[in-house]
Amino acid sequence: MATIYDVAARAGVSPKTVSRVINHCATVKEETRQRVLDAIRALDYHPNAVAKSLKQQKTFNIGYVIPYGSDFVFRDPAQLEQIKGANDVLAASDYNLILSVPKSGRDALREVDSLLKHKNVDGLILYAMAGVEPLAREFEAKGLKYVSLGKCYPEQKYNFVEVEAPSGGYLGTRFLLNLGHREIAFLGEAPQFLEPDKESMISGCIRAYQEAGLEFPAQGVLPGDYSVECGYYAVERLLAKQPAPTAIFCASDPMAWGVLRALRERGLVPGKDIDVLGGDDLPLTQSLEPGLSAIHSKLYELGSLGAGILLECLRMEDEAAREIPGRYLQSELVVRQSTNGPTRDRA
Amino acid sequence: MATIYDVAARAGVSPKTVSRVINHCATVKEETRQRVLDAIRALDYHPNAVAKSLKQQKTFNIGYVIPYGSDFVFRDPAQLEQIKGANDVLAASDYNLILSVPKSGRDALREVDSLLKHKNVDGLILYAMAGVEPLAREFEAKGLKYVSLGKCYPEQKYNFVEVEAPSGGYLGTRFLLNLGHREIAFLGEAPQFLEPDKESMISGCIRAYQEAGLEFPAQGVLPGDYSVECGYYAVERLLAKQPAPTAIFCASDPMAWGVLRALRERGLVPGKDIDVLGGDDLPLTQSLEPGLSAIHSKLYELGSLGAGILLECLRMEDEAAREIPGRYLQSELVVRQSTNGPTRDRA
DNA sequence: TTGAAAGCGTTACCAG
DNA sequence: CTGGTAACGCTTTCAA
C-alpha cells in the first residue's frame, strides 16, 4: 500500500505538499498540484483513515447505540425507520455509522463501553427508553457528544429529539370523538418501555376527552408492547368491554395490524363495523389496502434530525456544543378507510 | 485522557510492560502486574483503539455493505434478519459493525470506496444481488477479505453463504402437489433482483412437477418484488387464471401477507377456500394467527454464518484465507394452518 | 509556495 | 522478566 511518502517521492515534493493537495486546502502551485495528482493516480494512493484519525483525534465514526437487545431492534419497523433516517443523513456525510446493538439487552453497558472507552467514535446517537438514564449521565460526565432519540430523563433540556406522544394521542382522540365515537378502546404503551414520568400517548387522549367535556373511560385502556401479537390477542378483551367499543386506538401500527387481523377473523370489517386508528403510520401501513387511518409519527425525521444535530455538534467548538436545545416532533393525523364514525344502526 | 505513558509513569514501569498487561499476553511478574492495574484504575485509563489500529494495521471494524439503497434495506424484514444474524455474532466478538447502506442504490460504489480505500475496515460482508459482481471482483483484486451473502457471480466458489432457493421451491411445490393441488399459482422473484444465471425458486418448483410426472404450468407464474403491495395486487391476476388456482406459493413472506389480506377481503379464507404458502418464515409470520405455512429460509443463519466465516478468515493468515468454500443453506417446510389441500366440493 | 521534523498513542524488535 | 526505541501514516508548527 502506497503511503504519502511514496507519493511525495514520486512527485518530487515533500509529504506536506501532498497532504495539502489531498485536503484541497492551502495554496499549492497548480503545476506541483498536477504532479502530485499524477503520482497519486499512478500509485493508486489512498490516505489511511486510521493514521489521519490518530493525528486529528477524530475517527469519523458515529455510534448508534440501542441498548435493548437485537430482537427488539431488528424486528421493530419503527426502530428501523429511525435508523434509516440517521443512515441517510450519515451516508451523505463523511461519517460512518457504527451500529451498536447488543444481542441481549443485558449486555448493553459492555457494548457501549467498548465504543466509548476505546474512543473510536466521535459522537453517539442514543435511543432512549426506560433505563437509559445512567448511560446518558455517563456520556455527559465524560464530555462525549451525543444526541438522544427521546429524552433520557425527565429534566433533560438539551441534545434530544422526541416525538411528542401526548399530542398524537390528543389528535387521534379528538378526531374519533368528533366522528361521534363515545366508546373508544385504547391499546397504549407498556409502562416498562416508558421513561419514568414520560408522558404517554394516553395523557393526550385524556386531554381530548376533557376538552370535549367528557369523562375519560380509564377502564378502556389496555397496555401494549407495540407488537403485532399483542394487538391480535388484545382484541378479545377489548371487545368484551361494556358497552362495546366503536373504535380502537392503538399506540403503534403493528398493534393495529394485529387488531385488524383479529377483527377480520371475527367477521368485523374495519371502518364499517368498527373503527381502527394506528399510531405510527409506518411505510407498511401506507401501502396497505384498504388503508389504515393513523397518527403519523415522524420516526424517519427523528433519526435524520438526530443525526443532523449530532453532526452539527461535531462541527462546533466543544464547550458550546453540549447544549443544543431539545426538539419535539409533532405528529399528524392521516385519515384513510378505517375510520368512518360509529355505525348508527348497530348501536 | 490518560495515555499508556501516564500509566507507566505512575506504576514506575515502561509503557511496554503496561502494554503487556493490557494484552494479557506475556509473562509479567504478578506484583508489577498489580501495580500496573492499580495505575490503570486510578487514572481511568483506556487504550486508544485508533493508535492500536495504526500500529497493528487492523481496525476491528467490519463493513456490512448493501449496495442497494436504504429504502430497500430498512423496510425489508428479510434483509433485517440477515443483518441481525451478523450483528449478534459481531456483538459477541471484538469487532464493530459499520453499516454501509447508500441512501440511493446509485451511490453504492462511492460508499464502498470510502470504506475500502481508506481502509478502515478489516473485512466486509457483502449482500449479493444483481449488479454486485464488479464490487466482488474489486475486492478480490485488492485482496480484501470479504464474504458475500449469496453468490456474486455464477462461477463464485469461495467466500459466500447462500440460501438455496430452488430447493425451497422444490420442497414447497412437492408438498402442495402431495396435498392434491394441481392448480398452483406462483408469485416468484423479479428477474432484476437475481444474479444472471442464478437459479430461482421457480426452477425448484419445476423440478417437483417433473418428478411428479406433471407438466409445469408456466403461465401460472407471476414475477414479484418481494413486497406486501406486490402480493396484495397480484391476487386479482392470480385468481383470474383458468382453471382457478387452489393454492398460491409466494417466494417471500411479505408477498404472502399481501395475498392473505387480499383474499380475506374477497371473503376467501386461506387454508379453507384456497391454500397459501410463504417463502421466508420470518418472525412476524411465526407470530401470526392463524398461522401461515411457509418455507423457512435460514436468513438469520445466513447473516450469522457469514459473519462467522469472515471472522474466521480474519484470524487466518492472508494467503489461505481467500479460499473458504461457499456454503449453502437448506430451507425447511413449516406447515401451519394455511395449507390443507384443495377443497373437493369446490372443484 | 514549500519542507524538515515533531508528535498522535500504540506495539514490538532487540537488548539487558 | 523488563526497558529503550523505532516504527505505523498522517498532520502541522515553524522556518526558509
UniProtKB/TrEMBL annotation, chains A, B:
SUPFAM superfamilies: lambda repressor-like DNA-binding domains, Periplasmic binding protein-like I. InterPro entries: HTH_LacI, LacI/GalR-like_sensor, Lambda_DNA-bd_dom_sf, Peripla_BP_I. The keyword Cytoplasm does not apply. PROSITE patterns: HTH_LACI_1 (PS00356), HTH_LACI_2 (PS50932). It comes from the Bacteria. GO terms for molecular function: DNA-binding transcription factor activity; transcription cis-regulatory region binding. Residues 2-56 form the HTH lacI-type domain. Gene3D superfamilies: 3.40.50.2300, lambda repressor-like DNA-binding domains (1.10.260.40). Keywords: DNA-binding, Transcription, Transcription regulation. The keyword Phosphoprotein does not apply. This is LacI family transcriptional regulator. It comes from Hydrogenispora ethanolica.
